[in-house]
Amino acid sequence: MLTKVLTLVSKWAIPFLLLVIPLYGQLKKVPVYEAFVEGAEEGFTTAVKIIPFLVGMLVAISVFRASGALDYLSRLLGPALAAIGTPSEVLPLALMRPLSGSGVLGLATELMRVYGPDSFIGRLASTMQGSTDTTFFVLTVYFGSVGITRYRYSIITGLCADISGLLASIYICNLLFR
Amino acid sequence: MLNIIWLALLASGIIIAAINGQVEVATEAALGAARGAVKICFDLIGVMALWLGIMRIGEKAGLVEALARAMRPVMGRLFPSVPADHPAMGAIILNLSANVLGLGNAATPFGMKAMQELQKLNHNSEEASEAMCTFLALNTSCITLIPATIIGVRVSFNSTNPTEIVGATIFATTCSMLLAITVDYLFRTQSRWGRNRRVD
Known about the structure:
heterodimer, A: mainly alpha, 8 helices, globular, B: 10 helices
């Protein structure tokens, strides 16, 4: 039931917006196509502007990921997180969460392939995947698009949110799925 | 802060790869990521153009402004430095709504539009404004009602109940969002990072 409703909403959300906004514009006598093109023009410049920021950040994250540094961190943090009910298999995913969206998705997919989506590990990985957005990606892309290089306290805020999202995932999954 | 984190990620990665006796992994990762980053940006161009075009129609029709007006009580409190009828407000609301619905590819263009509007209020400084920090705090921690991607993965592995994690996800994102709002508020009002900001 819930699956059906949610798939229906995700299936319809974009066509709905693409239909309703231009229709409403027409109703308000907006020259819709002209307005569309005018707005769309900004897409190119904005996307290109992000390139240097994204190259810098993704290179650093990717080297860090590929080096196996995460395994060392996992081993370091493992005992503490095991004490609050986190299987060690999920740890790399938790550490990856703020750094790389595609990395997390890859790890979550792998965990579900190995342990099954309905195992505790599969459910916890799924919940963690959706618990928060990729802080470093979001900050890099959004600040990059307007040329801001000094992020002030926003990294700390983002990381606090990530940590609380991950801890909340562990708590709720232990409560619901154990 | 960012300089140190960036250097730490890069340097520790290379050193650890070297200790593990596979320093060539770092080379591959660096070059691959550099290419990948450009690909991401190029993929973004089309999606950005589409949504920014649609948004311009909404702006001209007064839809974005109406949205901002409707959400004024909440938004005014979260963004005291942004005038209630500023276009940034409409873009922020659109971005957060897209996030809530799990429409990642629509969320990014709206979010960048919001950043551009906020940057106008920031006098094109190179330093993040308080409103930007609040916006990104909300954005990275935003409640997700429909975690569409992960549901898709669960379906593909024949889960007996692909959406059973939705409740748990909503709980977790609610926690992270509340914490993000609190931490941001504390920084903005209590810390030297907030107070030292020049007033102009």
